[in-house]
Amino acid sequence: MLFFASLVIAFSGNDAMISPTSMWTPVFTDTFDVLLPVWTHIDNVNGNYRWGVTPYTRSLGTLEVTDHGLWSAGGGTVGGAQSWPTGTYVNNMTVWAIAGPFTPTQRVWEMRLQIDVQNRVAAGDTLFIGLSNGPLNPYKGVEVSESFSEWRSISWSTQEFGQSPVWIALLFTSDGQSVDAGSLVDNLVLEFNYGATVYLPVVRRDPTPTPTPTPTPLPIYVDHFDNPASGWHTGEAIRFNEWCRDGICYARDEVVAYISYIPGHYRYWIPLSWHGGIGDVDTWFVWPAERAPMPDSYYPLPERYCVEARGKFANARRDYDPWWAHWGIVFGANADMTDLYTFEINANHNYGAQRFYNYVYPGDVQREQPINIATNIIPWCKTAEDYPCDFPFISTMDYNVVKAAVRGNVVDVYVNGHWMARGNIPNMPRHNVGLFGGTWEYTPVELWFDYFRYDPFCPEAQQ
Questions:
Q1: What is the pLDDT of residues 332-357, one digit of tens each?
Q2: Distance of CA 439 to CAs 69, 256, 266, 352, Å?
């Protein structure tokens, strides 16, 4: 599940930044008791199967009560005669349910879509839930390919659409293999965050004095990296390398990564290593940890909070490439960033959470020195025969959202709205959070981050 409680978005100014506080407004709700005329249906099976309202039973304490939901195979001339969950969809089916337009009354800083889902699907069949600023424009959202028969609440949030109208899309697709009941959804809510403007001091690495009195910063921190003066570290990452090539040994400082802002993103660039045959710099095992430039008044962090970021493997050309490249968040660290607690995903559709003890920037594996020692909080997922798990909703090519929800001595981790695992984190320092990622033995690696968020009010941390 992925929820957003409130938002602060920074814009540059001479000595202040404009930030909207949370002011969520419900725009559209649907409990699917009847099929509302706002929905448009499109299919590729000649109207035999479409999204349709269907009754189902829901547990209410010890009672079973009748409710209604929207079923991906519950409409059309054939699907409308079926009952949930004994009916099925068919192979090679594509069915859309599109609702809209929903027009903001003023500028929208963030939108979120929440919906309850049962997803009884065969391997290779997928539910997509998303938003778009035009009925024919590409939709952005969450892909759900995991099969589950219990109700799960899924929430997805997007950045601002300004004052553009918005459409909701539910898309179900099946391949040519096995079939199952399909996707059943209920209790859909679309909300706009119109915000309320306040002024905060600009956060810079070398801040200039601001006029007094200074407003008290809000305890939520968000950076969309559209302001290259927002305070994150930039420049070259240098590491002392010792290695031998063609009988000649080297020991010197070398530039192993470049950290910078690019339009709307924060960028890690780790160039090709000499191990790949080009250049003369060793860039294996490079993973810079960059602290978020949050005001000192935010620390130490409370017992409960969330850290979240969205990013992508920008130089990926195919699945699993670059192999085992990884990125994620630092959800806890000490003051000098030598004791890190990280949650990461990799290009192999996998995830893990680790503690890096005696971390030395920008990362290295030194078997002869007690530095950069990684211990598992949540091990990288393994299946039988010790082969990495492969989660289809963790993309190599597209953006992913990672989140860690800290609750005292435990952490829950999420990828693209999916709860993944829970880890134990006793005595974790609470002096820094930030971004983390880079290479193992395959280079080059380019990482783009388009937002970072710290939120002490997120629902996941309050459970």
A1: 999 999 999 999 999 989 999 999 98
A2: 45, 10, 17, 15
Q: Within 13 Å of residue 188, how many CA atoms lie on the same side as its CB? A: 24
Superfamily classification of domain 228-462: Exo-inulinase; domain 1 (2.60.120.560)
Dump pLDDT digits (tens) for 375-401: 889 988 875 555 568 888 999 889 999
Tell me how many degrees the CA angle 416-422-423 measures, rounded to the nearest 5: 125
Question: 456: cis peptide before it, omega within 30°?
Answer: no
Where do the domains of the chain lie? 24-193, 228-462
Average pLDDT rounded to a whole number, residues 108-120:
87
The architecture in CATH of the region 24-193 reads: Sandwich (2.60)
Closest by CA to 183, choosing from 94, 63, 78, 61, is: 94
- For residue 208, what pLDDT is reported? 47
The separation between the first and the last C-alpha atoms of the chain, rounded to the nearest angstrom, is 12
- CA 113 to chain centroid, in Å, comes to 15
What whole-number distance in Å separates Cα of residue 273 and Cα of residue 250? 14
